[in-house]
């Protein structure tokens, strides 16, 4: 079905002719970027897990419709958009060094809700 599509069902999202190849490249690049994050980081652990899950589906399936069905998160073009966003976040996470301690101590009641004065 995907091969017969000329457009996506989503306004503003262009049809991709070879989404499988695009996904493989994006997932592999994301995993490579995550190597710059400490292995104990919850972000690296979670993101590596679901990126590897999706990559394995894409590597095991040649049919784009089957990939869409197994991942279950939208059309191939949506998966590409999600992968691009996650790749950008991973790059930002590395540049921000978000795993390092805060420069200033957080207020003691920062995580209490509702805030009380």
Structure in words:
- By secondary structure, this protein is mostly helical.
- It is 55% helix and 0% strand.
- Helix 1 packs antiparallel against helix 2 and helix 1 runs parallel beside helix 4.
- The mean pLDDT is 90.
**Could you give a short account of the major beta sheet?**
none
Radius of gyration: 18 Å
- Note the beta-strand portion: under 5%
Shape verdict? elongated
Distance from N terminus to C terminus (CA atoms, Å) equals 59 Å
Order of helices and strands: HHHH
Number of helices: 4
Question: Key features?
Answer:
117 residues; 0% strand; elongated; mainly alpha
Please outline what is shown here:
The protein is built from four helices and no strands.
Task: Summarize the helices and strands and which ones pair or pack.
Blueprint: H1 19-34, H2 42-60, H3 64-71, H4 76-96
Helix pairs in contact: 1-2, 1-4
């Amino acid at each position: 079905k995907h091969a017969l599509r000329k457009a996506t069902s989503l306004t503003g999202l262009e049809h991709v002719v070879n989404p499988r190849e695009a996904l493989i490249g994006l997932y592999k690049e994301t995993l490579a970027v995550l190597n710059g994050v400490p292995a104990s980081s919850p972000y690296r652990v979670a993101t590596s897990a679901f990126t590897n899950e999706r990559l394995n589906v894409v590597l095991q399936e040649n049919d784009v419709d089957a990939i869409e069905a197994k991942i279950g998160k939208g059309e191939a073009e949506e998966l590409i958009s999600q992968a691009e966003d996650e790749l950008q976040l991973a790059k930002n996470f590395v540049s921000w060094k978000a795993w390092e301690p805060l420069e200033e101590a957080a207020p003691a009641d920062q995580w209490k809700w509702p805030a009380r004065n």
